[in-house]
Design goal:
Blueprint: E1 7-9, E2 15-17, E3 21-22, H1 32-43, E4 47-49, H2 57-69, E5 79-84, H3 91-105, E6 110-115, H4 132-144, E7 148-154, H5 158-167, E8 174-178, H6 186-194, E9 198-202, H7 220-223, H8 225-234, H9 238-248, E10 252-253, H10 260-265, H11 276-283
Parallel strand pairs: 3-4, 4-5, 5-6, 6-7, 7-8, 8-9, 9-10
Antiparallel strand pairs: 1-2
Helix pairs in contact: 1-2, 2-3, 3-4
Residues 22-24, 49, 116, 154-155, 176, 202-205, 209-211, 237, 239, 254-259, 262, 265-266, 292 line the site of NADP nicotinamide-adenine-dinucleotide phosphate.
Domain NADP-dependent oxidoreductase: 22-285
Protein name: Aldo-keto reductase AKR2E4-like
Binding site for substrate: 116
Length: 305
């Protein structure tokens, strides 16, 4: 079954599908990302999330090229996101870094380019203390050059976002940050909405994901019978309930899976609707617990959390 996700209109005027495939893995076997992206496109995904630091833009590009060659999709139907890493925050670095990504992705433009984090580092990994306002000017330049259709940020806090908004000629179209049932982020989502910025939830499965054994003891959401009962009533999995909860809040989701059946499940969210009462049940699991604190960055000047 091929599922088509609805789209949301960004402030840039372009449409973004509200479900995308996440592609980050601490460790991936060669070919695994290519295979996952191909399965995803076959299942109906048209939105793929990658980043320079994931070191998989080449495989994402191969998968896209294969599917275009097979005639399954056209470039225009796809929405591809990649992200600028922290060591390329100098204004002059933004353009050549994106060009390198485009070359790996075998694309002539990117749909969405994000500043991955507000922090910056030099080649030794030390704090480069580059103001992300400078980086944003580089981001605006690539839109003017026609190399990115939309630009945005990721992992910015409210104050950092406010600074960008106060100087931006082109406003961020998207803010990508961690949102899931145990980190509900109502405050930041409401703030972002005020400026017509679309929230994209990374790690949308949070503690429901099967990848995080280190969070043992915090797994009430995996075992709580109330959520189990709810999943059973809708004929869906706990993970699908979590993703549906996010999209009903107007949030775009980018769940990662390299497993064919789960890639399909994570897009199969459009044949049911959670009642307000059930939305409140999912919301009640909030622990303000961050799966991705990126603590090694905590010593850097613009660490956001
Ligand atoms: N901007 C940023 O700083 C940032 C940070 C983190 C992530 N991201 C992006 O967001 C994407 C998603 O976040 P994430 O990868 O951290 O976490 P996630 O998507 O919430 O969870 C991924 C994990 O959940 C498992 N999983 C997937 N579908 C499942 C299902 N239906 N039921 C049970 N388990 C399931 C996957 O395993 P299998 O692969 O084995 O199926 C994988 O181990 C990333 O891949 C990346 O593209 C961005």
């Amino acid at each position: 079954m091929v599922v088509k996700a609805p789209t949301v209109k960004l402030s840039s005027g372009y449409e973004m599908p509200i479900v995308g495939l996440g592609t980050y893995a601490r460790k991936a076997e060669p070919g695994q990302v290519r295979q996952a992206v191909e399965w995803a496109i076959e299942a109906g995904y048209r939105h793929i999330d990658t980043a320079t630091i994931y070191r998989n833009e080449g495989e994402v590009g191969e998968a896209i090229a294969n599917k275009i060659k097979q005639g399954l999709i056209t470039r225009e139907e796809l929405f591809i996101t990649t992200k600028l890493w922290n060591d390329k925050h100098a204004e002059a670095d933004v353009l050549p870094t994106l060009q390198e990504s485009l070359s790996k992705l075998k694309l002539s433009y990117i749909d969405l380019y994000l500043i991955h984090w507000p922090v910056s580092i030099n080649e030794k990994g030390e704090d480069a203390e580059i103001d992300y306002i400078e980086t944003w000017r580089g981001m605006e330049n690539i839109v003017k050059l026609g190399l990115a259709r939309s630009i945005g940020v990721s992992n910015f806090n409210k104050e950092q976002l406010t600074r960008i908004l106060s100087v931006a000629q082109i406003k961020p179209a998207v803010h990508q940050f961690e949102i899931n049932p145990t980190l509900t982020q109502h405050d930041l989502v409401n703030y972002v909405n005020q400026y017509s910025i679309v929230s994209v939830a990374y790690t949308p499965l949070g503690l429901l994901s099967n990848a995080r054994p280190e969070f043992a003891g915090k797994d009430v959401i995996k075992t709580d019978p109330k959520l189990g009962e709810l999943a059973q009533r809708y004929g869906k999995t706990r993970a699908q309930i979590a993703l549906r909860y996010l999209i009903q809040r107007g949030i775009t989701v980018i769940p990662k899976s390299f497993t064919k059946s789960r890639i399909e499940d994570n897009l199969n969210l459009f044949d049911f609707e959670l009642s307000q009462e059930d939305m409140d049940v999912v919301d009640s699991y909030n622990l303000n617990f961050r799966c991705v604190p990126s603590l090694p960055m905590a010593k850097l000047k613009n660490y956001p959390f």
